[in-house]
Amino acid sequence: MKKLITLATAVALGIATTLASAEDNFPSKPVKIIVPFAPGGASDAIARPLALAMSQILGQPVVVENKPGAAGNIALTHVVRSAADGYTLLLGNISTNAMNQTSYADRLQVVPSKELTAFGLIGLTPSVLVASTNFAPKTGREFLAFSKANPERVTYWLPGVASGPHFDMVELERFAGIKMLAVPFSGGAGPGFAALIGGQIDLGLVNLGGALPLVTSGKLRAYAVSTPHRLPELPDVPTAAEAGLGNLTSSWQALFVPSETPAQVVRKLHKALNDSLKRDDVKEALAKSSTIITPSKSPDDAQAWVVGETERWAKIITASGVKPQ
Predict the structure, then answer these.
(1) How far apart are CA 101 and CA 34, in angstroms?
(2) On the CB side of 112, how many CA atoms lie within 13 Å of its CA?
(3) 278 and 266 in contact (C-beta within 8 Å)?
(4) What is the pTM of this model?
(5) Residues 291-318: pLDDT tens digits?
(6) Distance of CA 43 to CAs 133, 152, 309, Å?
(7) Cβ contacts of 43 within 8 Å, gap of 6 or more
(8) Domains annotated on the chain, with CATH
(9) Contacts 24+ apart (CB under 8 A), 235-244
């Protein structure tokens, strides 16, 4: 019996030593960043410069793998079910990792806030409330007055039912006491922008990168930005609060690992991410995608932010009554 106990103890110690060694030597093979959307989009534009910088910092290739579909839920599930060893990361955002937990609660096979851990925030992508130049109101306050006088006459473009902009516009309706008509589009941003420019749709809540060239060229009118302060790119456009629109949402991005990933590995990944965000080439690349870099001080801070956002949006989404189609 004593020999069996001694053997079991030795085996356990051997396993523990092997695991500790693996964590100490992390990474010893390529790391993957899973992007929940197709190549060429905003998330992809953020992931690729980060992957290159982290490769050089970690001393191993960091590759981007796109897994689009089901509003990001395919990628969420894939990463949750991957080995919790730090070699499979998720580039998540406000929709995939805060909103989807509530809006897709009856379909999701995982619980993102519990089964994934954010080890670092990347940045915020501001939103801009834009209007067709054919739409009569010239300012946010004029738009509110028009909407109150004409219930369900104002139309707004959506990239999809139960998407982030959808919930934001529903919250705007609640805040302002107005009622508008949502018009979902498929096929990416192109058809929606075309409808706005052509005057078939009145409003749209879009990211800064897409809005900026159309606003500065006079093809669209900007009512407000989602940031607490005016943006240097659009200095004449008021904040949502200044325009009387309450709050509009800036999307955020973060990197995640399965929640059982060893703390030592999580800390290494956090440092590699934050060191990457300090590099000039990464700053320049993220600026081109209109991302304001907002690194987190620690993995715990990043996860606390995501949990807080998940809880905040759960209340808004539940109250909205909006369901994915």
Answers:
(1) 18
(2) 37
(3) no
(4) 0.87
(5) 999 999 999 999 999 999 999 999 999 9
(6) 29, 33, 19
(7) 35, 36, 37, 91, 93, 253
(8) 28-125+251-320 (3.40.190.150), 127-225 (3.40.190.10)
(9) 237/128, 238/140, 240/129, 240/140, 243/129, 243/139, 243/140, 243/141, 244/140, 244/141, 244/144, 244/176
